[in-house]
Amino acid sequence: MENLQIEKLTSQYEQLIENSYYNKGAYLIADAIGLKMKVGASEYKKHFIGDKESRYVFKITLKKDGKQYTFNFGQSIAEGSNEPTLYDILCCLQKYDVGTFEEFCSEFGYDNDSRQAEKIYKGVVKEFEGMERLFNSEELELLSIIN
Question: pTM for this structure?
Answer without folding.
Answer: 0.85
